[in-house]
Design brief:
This protein has one domain. The protein is built from 14 helices and no strands. Helix 3 packs antiparallel against helix 5 and helix 7 crosses helix 14.
Amino acid sequence: MDMTRAVALAVLGAGVLMVSTASILIRFAMAEGLPAISVAALRLAIAAIILLPVVLATRRDELSRLTRRDWGLAIGAGAFLAMHFASWILSLEYTSVSSSVALVTTNPIWIGLGGWLLLRERPSFCMVIAIGMALAGSAAVFLADENIATTFAPNPALGNALAVIGSLAMCGYLLIGRRLRAGMTLLAYIGVVYGVAAICLMATAALLSAPLVKIGAMAWIVVIALAVGPQLLGHSAFNWSLKFFPATVVAMAILGEPIGSTIFAWWLLGEEVGVVKLGGMVMLFVGIVIAARSDRGH
């Protein structure tokens, strides 16, 4: 392996490690008294504010060429992204990190299932197997969490459902973003979409009278770390790695997030994973991998 590829592999691994800390940082922010909507709003707002001067300095001409249709797509993508973060982060108030992160990463399954049921696209044999395994794995996770209320998971059924809603919202974001991204550079795209998502979340937080400014110093440190680490550096590492690895390799690497998050939650928060849930997570993971590989052929 040459040095450049080795560095790219290290960056990709660092990106996986960084995004795996997101759920832990969210838990720390909640421990400082921040409600979920405040965490989501501040995470996106800080990221958008950091990006704004860079985007305006380097992509102003590109933004001026966006059509009304482009802005409509950007607003739609941003709204779905806001819904994703709001519902997923809220899920961490009710269920375990392992269940939440495993279920929120199931979007390849829902996209495949939606194409089958809504668009009448005939799925491949591998996609059918993937959907079956992922649904069985999800059922196992729900079953393992049923009637097991703990300090870390006071209402696991609600939390798991919110994580699935977050995954479905991510499907909407990806489907709209795929069309918009085709005609935009990455920096311009995330600058606009993160900004729209931040506005949606900040407005929602304001309507709910959630704290956004008067929060403790430690809470500020955690949400800034969340915005700079998993949100900006983590996802930027994935996008940079696409120069050196096929998209499917990067997509497979991203699936390391549930594994990393579960390990961090066990190590730092004392969350344990039972045999049934572990089996369900393995089925989910295998199903998602098969779905992602199957999608490559289309």
